[in-house]
Amino acid sequence: MRFIFIAFLASIGAALAADKAPVMIAAGYPCKGDGTAGNCISGFCLQLAHETEGVCK
């Protein structure tokens, strides 16, 4: 009975964690080209190769 209860709680926790919406960044704010800091609303993050972060355009 305990195992079923723990498995049920784990499945509920996994479902809640998966439903988070991605972070959207407005134009002019810092972003990362790989999307780890969020996604630009415009869909374009200008990040040069030697920079650690770019700017949403």
UniProtKB/TrEMBL annotation:
<keyword id="KW-0732">Signal</keyword>
<feature type="signal peptide">
    <location>
        <begin position="1"/>
        <end position="17"/>
    </location>
</feature>
<dbReference type="InterPro" id="IPR009101">
    <property type="entry name" value="Gurmarin/antifun_pep"/>
</dbReference>
<keyword id="KW-0929">Antimicrobial</keyword>
<keyword id="KW-0960">Knottin</keyword>
<keyword id="KW-1015">Disulfide bond</keyword>
<dbReference type="InterPro" id="IPR024206">
    <property type="entry name" value="Gurmarin/antimicrobial_peptd"/>
</dbReference>
<dbReference type="Pfam" id="PF11410">
    <property type="entry name" value="Antifungal_pept"/>
</dbReference>
<protein>
    <recommendedName>
        <fullName>Invertebrate defensins family profile domain-containing protein</fullName>
    </recommendedName>
</protein>
